[in-house]
What does this fold into?
Amino acid sequence: MEQNLALQIKNLSVDYQVYEGVLKVIPGLDLKVKEGERVGLIGETGCGKTTVLKAVAAILQSPPAIINKEVIAVGGKAVDRKKGIKNTRKKVSMIFQDPATSLNPTLKISTLMIDILKSSFPALKKEEYQQMMINSLKAVSMPAPERVLDSYPVELSGGMKQRVCIAMALMKDADLILADEPTTALDVTIEEQILDLLNDLVREKKKSLLIVSHALGALRKMTDRIYVMYAGNVVETASTQTIFSEAKHPYTIGLLAATPKLTGEGLADGIAGDIPSYINPPQGCRFASRCSRTTELCLEKTPPLTSVDQNKSWQVACYHMQKTE
Amino acid sequence: MRLAYLLVLKRLIHILVVLLVLSFVIFAFIRLIPGDPVRISLGPMVSEETVQKMRSELYFDRPLVIQYAHWLKGIVTKGDFGLSLYTHRPVSADIAEYLPKSLELALYSGIMILVMGVLLGTISAIFKNTWLDNLVRFISYLGVVTPPYAFGVFFMLLFGYILKWFPIGGMPKIDPAMTRTGMLGLDALLAGDFALYGQILKYMFLPALSLSLNSIAYQARIHRSSMIENINADYIQFAEVAGVKRIRLIMKHMMKPSFIPTFTIYGLQVGALLGNAFIIEVIFRYAGFSQYSLNVIMNKDPYGIVAITFIFGIVFAIVNMLIDLGVSKLDPRISLEV
It folds into this structure.
């Protein structure tokens, strides 16, 4: 195990038991986040991004989720899940998709914040907690922090709630911040503010970040590396610059092409078809049914992640990555 | 807080209007029931003149509206609910004697329902789908489907007759000088007689338990499902990852929102306790308000019936008001509209 990793996932495999059968959502996933690195996780809805984050934070609901095999190491230490959930949780913080449902509607912000603070700083005076809470709200550029502390979540706007969530996630001494589409439920005008804020705080406090987002433009600005997921598999990973300029996997290329552009080139192209059924996933490459380069080999065997460059930082899972259209 | 006062005031006016309408309807209905209440009260041997005289005294020979107005005037000016034809005493004296006893029984039942229901529901939810949960659920099924009188008779047999842990029924005699509130237990406490209080609790335990078991079971099921809903909620996962301690997470973060449905149902259950106590009070020979109500209704005692309906209405209205206030305290999303 390398020491400078903030997170290492090896061969994570998650199924979901549902009425229709067993959904083999994540067949075996590897992922690394180095210390201080900001990593993006992209892919279309339903490809298992949130499942990965929840598995790391140890909050996958089981049932329906069944975690078959996993080695998740947080902060360079492998974690024994049965004993180590508490230790894992100490190392990670998570920001959820929808701030409207992430905050307990029946508790005041201050009540929730004190409860969070108490886990890291058990015995402080009331005034000290108060000061810490105000500082943490100021750090997320919250106007009138005293008033916010005395409010219920319902009295705050969506953007304010997500700021509160970010403040709460940064309260404990976690090395790794998980962000699950932190701006999806927010207004577009707030989106950039929140992402900028998150980015600044992560850099300032030297934390590592694993962020899921559909805002590709923002990810390009705020991440060092990107993992592209398709139907539970990582299909390509490389530095952010490489992904956006010379991606090799046909799915990555299609996904980037699907982003609408402001340069007036008309509507963006989508990728025809859907994510395959997880109940009977195809034996070979899960993208084969939607790919223009599909051959017999693709249908027979899942392509492994293969390194493209020398230092193994750019990996692609495709048999036909050299071809260009 | 001012909002709450305004709400209470508004509700009280509302209750008053409802009670006026209710009492008039009851008055009208009593007249529709066949049979002459005065004749029932005095018996078949009494002469027609005596019956007529009494009818006249009680305003039974006047038009309904006049009778109602007379009755209302009595309440407003003298707090007089009329004369009971069943006990031959003023109805208000009967209520003062019997109501506190039933309220005390309902109080202990209400406490049991809340504590036991929430406790069982919480255990069941936390240990969801384990043998413990299944056991609690099985017992609560039994509890919901078994009628209170069956519990009453069974407990009386088992704990009273066979095991002799509790008295079979009735109430201990209490020195009339002690009587202040009419609630036996409270009076004993006020007089500082703890031995007597203990004895009274012993008498009250079986009836209160039989009365509350249905509701405990129901409450446990409600609380279980609302807790489970909260276990899976985003805000619990968020708080968990953010570092809130497990015990605090359960006792505060899950418990508080879970209490919203629990508390609403609880209000209905408590409001219905007086009515449910009818048969329990008869079984345990507990001379309370429910038993009195039953006798009054059976004997077609007009002023008695109106008065007990009045009391039931008031109890329900007050309980409902308290529940509304409580729920708005629990859930800041509910704003009280005045």
User: Anything to note?
Assistant: The CA atoms of residues 288 and 294 of chain A lie 6 Å apart. Chain A has twelve helices and twelve strands. The mean pLDDT of chain A is 79. The radius of gyration of chain A is 21 Å.
